[in-house]
Design brief:
Blueprint (H helix, E strand, L loop, with lengths): L6 H9 L4 H6 L14 H11 L6 E2 L4 E2 H4 L7 E3 L19 H23 L9 H26 L12 H4 L7 H18 L14 H14 L3 H12 L23 E5 L10 H5 L10 E3 L1 H5 L27 H5 E2 L4 E2 L2 E2 L12 E5 L5 E5 L1 H4 L11 E2 L5 H5 L10 E5 H14 L5 H6 L1 H7 L12 H15 L6 H7 L3 H4 L5 E5 L1 H10 L7 E2 L5 E2 L3 H4 E4 L17 H6 L10
Helix pairs in contact: 1-3, 3-5, 3-6, 5-6, 6-8, 6-9, 8-9, 9-10, 9-16, 10-16, 16-19
Length: 576
């Protein structure tokens, strides 16, 4: 039995499967403060419950919120029909927006679970070995740091709570602690985690937090807060482990991804207890999906050609066959026109102008048959408005087994590739990005997918920064990093302010390309890495998404109004 597969129900499951002596010691609604966490078994059960906090499923859509945040950036969109996109992307949010309250509650509930272990663990310290005690404490501290990272990145200054709030009067008088103080606190905690967690786990413990994951989290937090020396040192600590990149990029996001050493923190699911609906929300209409999440043209354009040059520069780029001779991560991340996936030909362009009412599918008998092409004929943005769907993290087995609403495919929250990218960026910001750093980080990542490495001496400082940031964009695309990256780079106000988003190539232009030899112009890329086309409104369908980002307000979310009504000592962020 793999640990994290059962993590969301393990605490309750263990409680009711360990005999009458456990039922005598535990009230039905909560563990007893006097008798719990006295033995190694109880400590194990208690810290297992803390892992529940890694599961953050988003309301009715039932998808993990962290990777979904990328669809509130330039990497994709949540289509504007039915329920509107993320409210903070178009300036319609305020302190009463329910999503912020849900996030605040989720993080503090997870912190409370960790705090319970941290506070009560000393009760049984004499009953276990020091090594075991420190390991359990380290697991709890890691989880608390993980949730405080998101709280501080999203809300800024927040209350620092390091014990269980038994006294309601104390809870009602909480004040916001500075982000810098909280960051320093959790970085110190992570030092303890690095020192007291094993570098890897095996057997039934596979999936627990390791010292490498602790170093990776420390590196991420330090990078997010501009502490580049700390970020580089923490990343280097992780790089000194035996962890290596997987040889197969696409395989990282399969149903069996929890078994891949590169994936350092993974949320696993179990069909009988907790699943998610990402293939339903993000999937093709022809594959039983709703197509709510759709990657952007700008993301697709960010993947370089196999010679390492952008599509604005490379002689290998063919506008008539734009998905050939490209970084293989593109087709591993995006479902593109002409790909076969889950026995379906993804066909979104009417090349001969005949209406494109059919596409091809391999049926249960193995025969290739024609079916109605819903990806082309659905009205407006209900079809694929951008011309792409997400492939990364959507397992064919979930579609073929008719489990699009009950997917068991894991959600990856940390990969070793992120550690390498953190080291590269931190060293660049420190003025220490040389060829040895490039070869140990970005060039290793590019080599995995068959791309040539970066020759540092051939690029200016601005060009190197753009290369490092684009590598981070495409390697970690749709995994939940972009929203935080464009905020910390202070580029969100430039990237997320526009009146529309370009979508698929217009039908008459497609016919002109394939019937009359018209060649689509190449894009140019601005200083923020966003592609632009000449006369793009004449070439592409216009998606009516208005992005609004107020730099005086939107770098932070508002403190939820309901929290401030209960705890009047909480101040509000600027602009709300």
């Amino acid at each position: 039995m793999k640990l994290i597969k059962y993590i969301s129900i393990l605490f309750v499951f263990t409680l009711f499967s360990c005999g009458d002596d456990y039922l005598e010691k535990y009230p039905l609604d909560a563990p007893s403060d006097q008798t719990f966490l006295l033995t190694a078994e109880e400590m194990e059960v208690g810290v297992n419950n803390v892992y529940r906090g890694l599961i953050w499923l988003w309301n009715w859509e039932n998808v993990h919120t962290v990777p979904a945040l990328d669809y509130g950036t330039d990497l994709g969109m949540r289509r504007p029909s039915g329920s509107y996109p993320f409210p903070w992307t178009y300036g319609a949010h305020d302190a009463t927006t329910g999503f912020f309250k849900d996030a605040w509650t989720k993080f503090y509930r997870s912190i409370e679970r960790a705090n319970y272990i941290i506070e009560k663990l000393p009760l049984g310290k004499e009953n276990v070995t020091e090594e075991f005690y420190n390991r359990i404490m380290a697991e709890a501290l890691w989880h608390r740091a993980f949730h405080y990272m998101y709280l501080t990145e999203l809300f800024g200054d927040v209350p620092w709570v390091e014990t269980v709030m038994w006294d309601y009067e104390e809870a009602y008088s909480l004040v916001r602690e500075s982000k810098s103080t909280i960051v320093n606190n959790i970085l110190t905690d992570l030092d303890f985690c690095i020192a007291n967690l094993p570098a890897s786990w095996g057997g039934e413990d596979y999936g627990r937090i390791s010292s490498v994951a602790a170093a990776g989290l420390k590196a991420r937090i330090a990078l997010y807060n501009g502490m580049y020396d700390v970020a580089a040192q923490a990343a280097q600590t992780a790089m000194q482990s035996d962890i290596q990149l997987s040889s197969n990029y696409e395989g990282l996001f399969s149903y069996d991804t929890y078994q891949v050493p590169e994936n350092l923190v993974v949320v696993q699911y179990l069909e009988e207890f907790v699943t998610h609906g990402f293939p339903l929300i993000a999937g093709s209409r022809n594959l039983k999906g709703w197509g709510v999440f759709q990657p952007s043209v700008s993301l697709a354009d960010s993947y370089v050609c196999t010679d390492g040059l952008s599509i604005a520069e490379s002689p290998l780029f063919d506008p008539r066959n734009p998905y050939e001779n490209r970084d293989s991560r593109m087709k591993a991340t995006l479902l593109t026109h002409g790909q076969w996936f889950a026995n379906l030909l993804f066909d979104v362009y009417d090349e001969d102008g005949d209406g494109k009412d059919k596409t091809l599918q391999i049926n249960a008998s193995g025969d290739t048959v024609s079916i109605k092409n819903q990806d082309f004929h659905k009205p407006g943005v209900i079809k694929t408005a951008s011309g792409y769907y997400q492939k990364k993290g959507v397992a064919e087995v979930d579609i073929l087994d008719n489990l699009v609403a009950k997917s068991r495919t894991p959600t990856i929250l940390m990969r070793y590739a992120e550690v390498l990218l953190t080291y590269a960026e931190a060293k660049f910001e420190l003025g220490q990005f040389d060829q040895s750093v490039a070869d140990a980080t970005i060039n290793v990542i590019r080599d995995r997918v068959g791309l040539p490495g970066i020759n540092v001496g051939e690029h200016s400082s601005n060009e190197l920064q753009a290369l490092i940031r684009n590598e981070r964009k495409v390697e970690l695309a749709l995994e939940g990093f972009r929203y935080f990256d464009i905020k910390r780079w202070k580029t969100a106000e430039h990237i997320m302010n526009n009146n529309y988003v370009i979508g698929r190539i217009q039908k008459d232009v497609v016919v002109d390309i394939y019937q009359n030899g018209f060649e689509m112009p190449r894009p140019t890329f601005d200083e923020y890495g966003i592609s632009h086309y000449p006369n793009e409104q004449d070439l592409f369908e216009k998606i009516p998404l208005e992005y609004v980002f107020d730099p005086a307000r939107d770098y932070l979310w508002p403190i939820p109004q309901t929290e401030r009504e209960v705890v009047p000592t909480l101040t509000q962020n600027p602009g709300y």
